[in-house]
Amino acid sequence: KPHIHLQIQISLFGDEDRLIVAKDVTRLYQLEQMRRDFVGNVSHEMRTPLTVISGYLETLVDHGEELPPKWRRAVTTMAVQASRMEALITDLILLSRIETGEHTVDDTLTDVEALLNQISHDAQALSGDKNHQITLSISDHRLLRGDESQLRSAFSNLIFNAVKYTPAGGDITVVWSTNRDGAHLLVKDTGIGLDPIHIPRLTERFYRADPSRHKDTGGTGLGLAIVKHVLINHDGNLEIRSKVGEGSEFICHFPRERLVERAPDNNQNVP
Ligand code: ADP
Predict the structure, then answer these.
(1) Nearest Cα to 108, choosing from 151, 145, 143?
(2) pLDDT > 90: what percent of the chain?
(3) In whole angstroms, what is the distance from residue 181 CA to residue 178 CA?
């Protein structure tokens, strides 16, 4: 049965008068749906040929010394670009799945503490020689009702961004805390920061604050769009604060209804 989508705007005039405008946005909604499906399908179709190309390129790189010297650089460049394209396709597929709500988020419980431990560990590896000081602090050990793989994508995008956009030796602080309003994940860095005028558009697909400043970070421009949609799926929202040259703070807010007590640990007394 076809659905009709209406956008309703109510304006108040004084105490009594109301102006109600209802606009039929069904067509717009359908177009948006078609766009999502199209992007999702194209990405899927491109993945297989790309995997084949990358595979052969990797083999060529591995046998670099057998290639004529003038070909080596070309082959290495092709391999790097092919793997960038693979990252892009992976993010596009993920985003279109998350946007269409293909995953249900309500029935699973995520151990945020364990998740953040793993991601911080991976972030330290990503930091490598840049030796960032990554500090994780957890003050609430309850579980979060929500899809672990989506939350993993969102949290790792934020924490890996902090590593990418912070010069060597900088500090990255990750804090999971709760209060009356709900649960909050703060990811704070002492990195390059960004001009706050960009903040409203930062979660748009492919939007980058200043492409010339970080063309070598190898991002896809889809990370924060993924974060935004994961938070929408979990009734949460994203807050961003930043100052050029000083650093940035990305805060994910989740409503308190999503927090769940841990079941008692039955293995505690096993010898
Ligand atoms: P990208 O793949 O480019 O990192 P994202 O969607 O993850 O894409 O981020 C969008 C843009 O937001 C980035 O290009 C960058 O300009 C800015 N940004 C994201 N995280 C940070 C951060 N921690 N510090 C400074 N700028 C950031």
Answers:
(1) 145
(2) 78
(3) 8
Q: Name which residue sits closest to atom 16 of ligand 1, judged by CA.
A: 209
Structure tokens at 19: 């102006």
Atom nearest to 213 CA in ligand 1: 16
Q: What is d(CA 254, CA 104) in angstroms, rounded to the nearest whole number?
A: 17
Give residue 44 CA to ligand 1 midpoint distance, Å: 25
CA-based torsion, 234, 174, 251, 43: positive or negative: negative
DSSP annotation of 197 reads: G
Task: Using the mean position of ligand 1's atoms as its centre, give its distance from the Cα of residue 259 in Å.
Answer: 29
CA distance linking residue 241 with residue 222, whole number of Å: 19
Index of the ligand 1 atom closest to the CA of residue 203 = 6
What ipTM goes with this model?
0.98
Residues 146-181: tens digit of each pLDDT: 999 999 999 999 999 999 999 999 999 999 999 999
